[in-house]
Amino acid sequence: MCMEVNLRAVVLDILEEIESNNEFSHIIINNALLKYQYLDKSKRSFINKLSLGIIESQIELDYIINKYSKTPVKKMKPVIRRIVRMGVYQIIYMDNVPDSAACNEAVKLAVKRGFAGLKGFVNGVLRNISRNKDNIEYPDYNKSPYEYLSVKYSMPMWIIELWSGQMSIDTVKSVLEGMKCEKKTYIRCNTSKASREQIKELLQRENVTVKEVENIPYAYEISDYDYIAGLKSFQDGMYQIQDISSMLAGEYTAPKAGDTIVDVCGAPGGKSINAALKMSEQGDCGRVIARDLSDYKVALIDENIKRLNITNIQTQVYDALDCDESLINKADIVIADLPCSGLGIIGRKPDIKYNASPEKLQSLVDLQRDILKVVSRYVKSGGVLMYSTCTINRAENEDNADWICKESGFTKDGEYHQLLPANNSGMDGFFVARLIKS
Ligand SMILES: C[S@@+](CC[C@H](N)C(=O)[O-])C[C@H]1O[C@@H](n2cnc3c(N)ncnc32)[C@H](O)[C@@H]1O
């Protein structure tokens, strides 16, 4: 007999694991969803929405709890803190869950996890918040805009301050809005296997909803599938999942037929694959050398190129900090999509915002410069260095691009592109600089 699964208990386990492991929350959530693959789609989506939502909205949830609980969040027992956050998230954000169910289930969970003595406390705090949920007082946007944005969008204050030094407060707000809105899935069609129309048809036959993407002919936005790796079209290598900002980086790269391209930090292979396909589409497939730091990372690239059946990419385990003398002045294009603070993809990986710090950002700037200094040597005269990151941080982006131009004799090819997750675009934040070796 199949036991009824308590979905909130599953979420509680996920939250516990995220706090005790050094692993990204989306990986832990995906593993749980795989384990409970046999559940209805609606139940799995409840698990996903609730666990991800609690992490995304933690600063706001704690702010609300602290307003209505005599014991501050920080002083609560970890299990109780998680249970209360879970209850508050349902009360504030899940209209289809009655507040009474959110409260009762939280109380039951507290008892089940050995805290029967605190059931009155859990019940009291949650009922109090439920009663007052339409009158919660947030910081005043006009008086303290940073504090308001930090609470309302659960973004650490120092990140709001950092961005406010780089863009207007209205743009910061729209970035935060963009990060909070529903994430979309985009695919890059494998044009070496089938035309985009054929790929659209295959997807539609699998009941997937397919939408065109403006300005990128080989991309689609897809939705209404259950589990992407379970789709036959995915297994047959008809496409690669890739964010549009990353595909736009591929557009700026603009490889020519027969180019030699070195992707120095390549895993899991998105940019390499895009460049390889773009060359194949022009008739002479050239060659891409795709590298990363470890066997594990390179295996991720291998897995993708095998599934997509791409033959013009050669993979190698290679530390980008070590200079490879054999490549000096040999590449038409070097793709340097470097490790970065990832502030542009907080919408997809919310724990980035809690783990980042000003000190970590500075050490990434140093690492990026060290890598750029080495790999810029591989670009032949007149060739291209594509520097990109998935962050929104001038020191890692524009400043580093300017620095390498000065340091190693490159010039800007057009403007730098700082893509932002604007309202409802579902796009990640991304930076691309196309630099030409003088
Ligand atoms: C932003 S990701 C690259 C994403 C990839 N370009 C794509 O589009 O799929 C950065 C990669 O740099 C790799 N990396 C970090 N330090 C490195 C190093 N010293 N040498 C080579 N790769 C490194 C990481 O393992 C990570 O896979």
From TrEMBL:
Q: What is the lineage of its organism?
A: Bacteria, Bacillati, Bacillota, Clostridia, Lachnospirales
Q: Which UniProt keywords apply?
A: Cytoplasm, Methyltransferase, RNA-binding, rRNA processing, S-adenosyl-L-methionine, Transferase
Presence of the UniProt keyword Nuclease in the record:
no
Please, which domain of life does this record's source organism belong to? Bacteria
User: For this UniProt entry, what is the primary localization, expressed as one broad class?
Assistant: cytoplasm
Does Acyltransferase count among this protein's keywords? no
Give the EC number(s) listed in the UniProt record: 2.1.1.176
GO terms, biological process: methylation
Compartment(s): Cytoplasm
Enzyme class, top EC level, equals: transferase
Originating organism: [Lactobacillus] rogosae
Give the family, as the similarity comment puts it: Belongs to the class I-like SAM-binding methyltransferase superfamily. RsmB/NOP family.
Q: What does this protein do?
A: Specifically methylates the cytosine at position 967 (m5C967) of 16S rRNA.
Q: Where does S-adenosyl-L-methionine bind?
A: 292, 319, 337
Query: What's its catalytic activity?
Result: cytidine(967) in 16S rRNA + S-adenosyl-L-methionine = 5-methylcytidine(967) in 16S rRNA + S-adenosyl-L-homocysteine + H(+)
Its gene name is rsmB
From the Swiss-Prot or TrEMBL record, give the protein name: 16S rRNA (cytosine(967)-C(5))-methyltransferase
Q: Which PROSITE patterns would you find in this protein's record?
A: SAM_MT_RSMB_NOP (PS51686)
According to the UniProt entry, its GO molecular function terms are: methyltransferase activity
SUPFAM superfamilies in UniProt: NusB-like, S-adenosyl-L-methionine-dependent methyltransferases
Under the heading Pfam families, the entry gives:
Methyltr_RsmB-F (PF01189), NusB (PF01029), RsmF-B_ferredox (PF22458)
